[in-house]
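Re: the multi-chain job from yesterday

Posting the exact lines I submitted so nobody has to dig through the queue logs.
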Amino acid sequence: MKAEKGRIYIAAFAVIFAAVFILSFAIGKYPVAPGELLRVLFGKITGAAKTWTDEAELVIFRIRMPRLLAGAMIGAGLSTAGAAYQGLFRNPLVSPDVLGASAGAGFGAAVAIYLGLGYTLISTAAFVCGIAAVATAYLVSAKARRSQTLGMVLAGIMISSLFSSGTSFIKLIADPNNTLPSITFWLMGSISSVREDRLIWAAVPILGGMLVLIALRWKLNILTTGEDEARSMGINTKLMRAVVVCAATLITSASVAISGLIGWVGLVIPHFARMLVGYDYRVMMPVSMLMGASFMVLVDDLARSLTTVEIPLGILTAFVGAPFFLYLILDRGRRV
Amino acid sequence: MTLEVKDLRFSYKDNRVLKGVDLSAGAGQCVFVLGENGAGKTTLFRCLLGLLAGYTGEIHIDGTDAANMSSREIARKIAYIPQAHTPVFNYTVFETVLMGTNVLTAGLRTPGKLERETTEQMLEQMNIPHLGERGFAEISGGEQQLALIARALAQKSRILIMDEPTANLDYGNQFRVMRHIRQLARDGYLVILSTHNPEHALLYSDMVLVLKEGKAMVYGEPGKILNQDLIKSVYGISVELQTVRAPWGDVPVFIPHVE
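And the result, structure tokens for all chains:
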């Protein structure tokens, strides 16, 4: 793809994201119209006289803004991590939790909820366990004799099922009247309770990881040619694998830590991006990021407006993800 | 620009694959590596490319010991052209060739105008500029091989290593690709390639290295070493070496013994 064309795509998706973000303020229990939102934001920045209600300000800054930012950040982060992993593992059906980040984080959270810890400690436990799961898978696979990437995926699957059964055990022994429902609900994923302090806490690993992956976007293209070819083109594959896994794990663990398990986004969004703009990571990666952010904000709009109770995000993303996955299988089957 | 290999040995665990290979070649040469499957051709190439650590013996590239070079430094000297294959992600031919410029850009820089121009030049040189925006998976095997050669040229390394460049190609494409390869040697590249077709070695090589069971059996000019006895001992079949007079000159050929 020509460079200018790529820039136009990125700019177009940035505009779409901005529109989705602004319009989403109008969705929810206390809608804020775009005009009012811009008036409040403009007034806050310029320090103009207050022409809006306290209620509007509260909804914008304390309730909706953190939630929308969290959705955008998690959607962008998971999509970027998924795109990077699909290149690293040379497999378009890989998702960011393939090395066990989500299963580990879910287990950490379940233990913390079981022990009756507070929200901050639940998030911390999830984050730490997610990283620990991936670190274990990575260290085991470093001893693999032949293909390191295959070893990593296999070790990741084993570690994931280990942590998943750990989570099941915690659910089994949890009190069915209070801790079990909250574990179950947490695992289904939601960003309804995100507030700005937790948002800032998660922003460091998520944005940091995304920056690293975006910086590596060109090199990721070369990594998809495989170990031998990438090295013969001057890529330090060992170092690059380690950096990509670190960055993606920080993103995934931090996302799960504040939102619970949200599947499908990291798998499906990079596919949509590839279908629209081609394979070159220099364009595909920023587009995945913006699409992921827009998609997550939209799905969260649905989560808080479809019914009177909040629908967990993990359920809604699967509703979109699973049919798409089936379509992919059918499409591939036709071509084979 | 020179490549010197002295008593190269390599083992995968207990399996000794290379048991002493010597090789010496320079600019403008086309070196063919012959040998049956499992003779160590691919292992030799992977050692030369710096992809296998733990070999014994010496590899000198331009007088520098390759053991002291980083993979990036080796990539600046030697480019690798794999067999044409279906890639996992269907990059365009232009993007594929552009990847070759990676060793020329420092750090995390993405390719710019200079690299795009290099890419266009190399597509031009391989006569495939019209394929630039096509997907790599959608072009023919012969075109894929030319695109991979263009990618290696974009790397601006003067030594090219090719793993069976004519395998999986139809009759016409085999010769088209071989002609391009010989032209590269004439342009001053050192080309080292493996093949299962000794006839190509008769026609296009400057030097021939024959590997048998991990050892360099013989290394020399094709006119001096390629004969019935060698083919018999490497491949176990009887052939007759003859020179056929054609309108474009004398052409040496192996005539297989047909019962």
